[in-house]
Automatic annotation (TrEMBL):
It comes from Sandaracinobacteroides saxicola. This is Succinate dehydrogenase hydrophobic membrane anchor subunit. Membrane-anchoring subunit of succinate dehydrogenase (SDH). It is a multi-pass membrane protein. Its cofactor is heme. GO terms for biological process: tricarboxylic acid cycle. Pathway: Carbohydrate metabolism; tricarboxylic acid cycle. GO terms for cellular component: membrane. It is found in: Membrane.
Length: 126
């Protein structure tokens, strides 16, 4: 027995089977973000003070820099996935949708690149 409606079978429409990976990526990045943001907040609370020099000294340690890089990557990817769904659902003009998705991707890559560069520059000394 085949699934779907009669009209869907006639038109050859069925499950696209493409949304599951996107859905899982959103859930996995959300879980990762939860753990990494919790680590970040606890780490900041444990710092003696939040002056520039103490934060830079903290980020020079690999045990702080590596999770910070993971946090930046995970948050940027999660934002991209979430805003992509919004654009695909609510922007109906194909040209505007394409341009919006392109702008989203450029924005997320730019934010990730600047953020990662900043952490790496602080970690390796400037």
């Amino acid at each position: 027995m085949r699934g779907g409606t009669s009209l869907g079978r006639v038109r050859g429409l069925g499950s696209a089977k493409s949304g599951v990976q996107h859905w899982w990526q959103q859930r996995v990045t959300a879980a990762g973000n939860l753990l990494l943001v919790l680590w970040f907040v606890v780490s900041l609370i444990l710092l003696p003070d939040l002056t520039h020099s103490s934060v830079v000294a903290w980020l020079k340690q690999p045990v702080a820099a590596v999770p910070m890089l993971l946090l930046i990557g995970s948050v940027c990817w999660h934002v991209r996935l979430g805003v992509q769904v919004l654009i695909e659902d609510y922007v109906h003009a194909e040209g505007l949708k394409l341009m919006s998705l392109l702008a989203l991707n450029l924005y997320v890559v730019a934010v990730a690149a600047v953020s990662l560069f900043s952490v790496l520059k602080l970690s390796f000394g400037a």
